[in-house]
Amino acid sequence: MNGISLSRVVRSRERLLQQNYRQLDQQVTDSDPEQIIRQLRRIQNQQLNLLDDLISGLEEPTPPSPSVKLAQHIVQQGETLFLLARKYNTTVARILRVNPDIEDPDVIQTGMVINLPIILPQRPECYFEYTVKPGDTLFRLAQRFDTTVNQLVYYNSISDSDLIYPGRILLIPCPDNQDNQKKSLEEYEGDIEVANESNNENGIYFDTLARDNENNFNGTVKDNLFTADTKFRLERILENFGIQAPERIDFEENIVIGAVGYDIEALDLEDRTLKVVVTDKPKGYHLIKVTKEEFSVEGSHRIDFVTAEDSSLDQKRINISF
Hints:
Layout: H1 3-27, H2 31-58, E1 70-74, H3 81-87, H4 92-97, E2 113-119, E3 127-131, H5 138-144, H6 149-155, E4 168-173, H7 178-187, E5 192-195, E6 207-212, H8 221-224, E7 225-228, H9 231-239, E8 254-270, E9 273-291, E10 299-306, E11 312-320
Helix pairs in contact: 1-2
Pfam families: LysM
Organism: Acetohalobium arabaticum (strain ATCC 49924 / DSM 5501 / Z-7288)
Domain LysM: 71-116, 128-172
């Protein structure tokens, strides 16, 4: 029997013992023995977590299937993988398994987008993404975005509706009423990334790679708005700002669009022109990833960076090759 098989046998037996400890805890009511039993249960839970880590470490790391949508979290200042594991009731090993591009688990950067080992259900037809801020609760967000706590819990696979953490990226379903939907998207512009294929036939999807709202960066508008189709180009641009380039990007299938001092709100593609709608912010940056499949033709495309009022900020060119 090899190491991983033996570890699984031990874990299986520990889980049987866990049930026995639970029954024992229910039957013993004397205060001193009860405290001893609860201490044993805590130690046994720690053993199970260690066994999970051991098995995950022995297994070959495999990236999640592209068809599986995982919850995500933007790393906040001072957070580590250990702290994230505690917040989301998981282990560092499980987080690493769904983030195979993390080379050093002891070094993660503020603003980095981390996949969480939390599988999400099928997305609603219309939704937008919102990053939890300090003081947010599901009840307040449900009121703010004209939805329900139950819907937020369901679409984000939240286990405890009373507990959400700053940095968690939530999927917010659009309001059912179209007039309310328009009001919501306009009123909270700057907080959301629109993903509504049915209402915007030219709009295309994007994924946030990294976002920061705390650090100051200098540069001209021309330097602060950019595109990259190679890892070398992205690293060279970000080096000017002292920003670490994200690791998990396949440039054979994706391009990167970046905005320093702005948030990227929406993308609109028409012919060979990609309009990138951005909103100004005093600090931070926003990096997104767009799959080349979103572009209908190969060749040179113009990238127009514009404000929400459609005022032009800058223009770039990028070549798309499948």
